[in-house]
User: Fold this.
Amino acid sequence: GPIDGRPRMYTEMLEQPASVERALRGRLDERFATAHLGGLEMDARELRAVRRVKILGCGSAYYVGQMGASLIEELARVPADAEAASEFRYRSPVIEPDTLYVAVSQSGETIDTLLAVEEIRRKGGRVIGLVNVVGSAIARACDGGIYLHAGPEIAVASTKALTTMFVGFALLALQLGRVRDLSVADGRRLVAGLQNLPAQIEQVLDGEERIAQAAKALAEAESLFFVGRVRGFPVAREGAQKFKEISYRHAEAYQMSELKHGPLALISPEVPTVAIVPDDELTDRNVAALHEIDARGGPLVVVTHAGVDLGDLRVERIDVPRSERELDPLLLTVPLQLLAYHAALALGHDVDKPRNLAKSVTVE
Ligand code: BG6
Assistant:
């Protein structure tokens, strides 16, 4: 319930600079420009033998898993993907001995994720856990893992656990990368980027007032899109998830690249779009898509970096601090938490106890 009259979700969002700091503590090695995750129980030879990474989680954990897959592919150049654990366990997945399976869960008790872990291990696969709750069922079922150190998360909508999951993946990608082909210079760049995150999250949180204004306008729409491309797409998925969970508005995530293959038909002055437009190699393409939306009268909220030129587009702009490109998704995610939170407040909902949802789903 509320602390000091503030919803729990709010206090948990505000704790993120501290929880990210905790997740990093003692795990960065400046000298060798790498990360040390002792709990993996894997030496350099075993890490080098990994040919593929498969990430499994549910809900927000699955979306962060997609961000994690990008981090691993970009930094370690190991093919990686994420799948909903709830789907994985119902198909007949091929379990490969040189694939590293990663289960990601705040509670460590989500039944779909737990049963996926048990199935993989039964078939001889190696699973590591990215888990917040120490000693939880998933943590015990895995071969090794990374504790997130986010502290207790009570609100149903995951915020501080989610950002520490991202950090966990970044550390894993860094360690995996540095036993393979990631250079010392890139390792240093990432170590410094990670160290800067707590202060940068604080900066995003300081922009709350502006985000709250944008949220009030969005709360009036019955239906909205969240769009992003490549690194930005899982961010859009997580943003839409949060928005629907607590505001009960229809929020649909789409790849910005696929807009013209379908959803543009729905764009109108009644259907706003929240667009994730980092300053990266795809900015121009993303800005071109914004023009397509604008030309159809679709209201736009753009989460971006200072310096991205949006020309004469009529948008509500939310700038986040620039990180290293691979780490951008974390800072782009934080304003979407505030956006969902303030939309839900404006609509008078109990953000800590969204209807029909449980904090963790532990029974089938
Ligand atoms: C869902 C919650 O049912 O479980 C989501 O409503 C959460 O918010 C998901 O992301 C996974 O939970 P966990 O504990 O495995 O991370």
Notes: Residues 58-61, 105-107, 110, 113, 156, 158, 357, 360-361 surround 6-O-phosphono-beta-D-glucopyranose (CB under 6 Å). DSSP finds 13 helices and twelve strands in the chain. The mean pLDDT is 96. The two ends are 27 Å apart (CA to CA).
